[in-house]
Amino acid sequence: MASTTQHRNGTCTRCGSRLIHLEWEERLDPHQLQQLWRCLECKNEFVIPRDSEEESTTSAEIIAPFFTNLVVE
Ligand SMILES: [Zn+2]
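Above: query sequence and zinc ion SMILES. Below: predicted holo structure tokens.
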């Protein structure tokens, strides 16, 4: 997985600092998140779109309704 290093934890888009803080995140659709980060160095705020497919919560949401049906039946 050598190709996943870019913006993995994020760096400031203005000064390149790694001292950034996640302000909030928003789900755009089932496969994509949008995260707002703030730089602690220069106070820059920037949005990074993220692919959420690698997170286990996505598959859990897909499995959950199906699993609930089995329990109810
Ligand atoms: Zn910065």
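The chain has one domain: 2-72.
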